[in-house]
Amino acid sequence: MTSLTLFTPAGALARAGNLKRAAKRLAQFGFEVETDTDALARHQRFAGDDATRLAALHRIADAAPSIALATRGGYGMTRLLDQIDWARIARSVEHGTRWVGYSDLTALQNGFIARHKGLSMWAGPLACDDFGRSDAEGGVDEVTRDCFLEAMSGALEAVGFREPTGGFDGLEARGRLWGGNLTVLCSLLGTPHWPKVKGGILFLEDINEHPYRVERQLLQLQQAGVIDAQAAVLLGDFSGAAKSPLDRGYGIKDAVAALRARTKTPVLTGLPFGHIRTKVCLPVGGMVELYVQGREAIVGWQSDPRLAHAGHDHHDHHHH
Q: pLDDT digit string (tens) for 42-96?
């Protein structure tokens, strides 16, 4: 059985019910689920004070389960970055632990790959949001579930999506995949936790940020030389912000157009990733290849040979 530990590294969980439901569902998927002892800890808006959350990270790293799945994001990883024993985290990854999450976990993932070339973590679901919703709240998204199960079994080698803007037919690029939440990533610029990736494939998403704020951060990355140094940029979902009467038609498309006007790097949209129900899993720090045919884009990678023998556990529900 594949061991899976649930932990809460950043924001506190509002309700224990979602965690219980997520643990039960993950067990039904065939995982041996353990919940970290401080997963429900609370200190102000955090899942325990900094020392508590840092200890949980190190405890999980030392135990090296097959999967370390964050229960939620929020805010809190930033406080821990300077104190994390990255070598302990690296040992768990070398041992086969897949750290999974998104949103605030962007800080952990990129801080990690900034120090360890050749190792990766997984941008993917969060336990409570993606696996803890009641049926009344919409239950579990099938694509998210299937993608996660396939990634965790070592069988997932590509994700495909439709690139709505067009104009990228025949594009091919290869590089290190990195990125995640735009706001969190920008907060790492100029710190030791910034991955200095050149020729990479940078993916970005955000939630509740007005398109002009998204644009400002995209242009910050471009003006810092980051975007121009990449082989390609993949934009996921940027929803959730209220429109302003000042916009007069300005929206996320205009923010993307502003970036495209300032860089030669191909900027693709439509990546199914972000604060949305349907999300894929992506190997942050892994080498990937990007191909576009017409409007169909594919991001592919080599699956982990250590897991390949276990890659057929969940084959009954792969239909994407």
A: 999 999 999 999 999 999 999 999 999 999 999 999 999 999 999 999 999 999 9
In CATH, the number for domain 158-300 is 3.50.30.60
- Residue intervals of the chain classified under CATH 3.50.30.60 are 158-300
- pLDDT at residue 139 above 90? yes
> What gap in Å lies between CA 197 and CA 209, rounded to an integer?
25
Active site positions, annotated: 103, 205, 275
- Domain boundaries for CATH 3.40.50.10740 within the chain: 2-156
Residue whose entry in the numeric block shows the structure tokens 């995209």? 218
Burial of residue 228 (number of CB atoms within 10 Å: 0-12, 13-18, 19+):
middle
Question: Sorting pLDDT into bands at 50, 70 and 90, what band is 316?
Answer: very low
Q: What's phi and psi for 152, nearest 5 deg?
A: -70, -25
CA-nearest of 120, 154, 151, 148 to 26 is: 148
pLDDT at 307: 63
The mean of the pLDDT values for the chain is 95
Class of domain 2-156 (CATH, top level): alpha beta
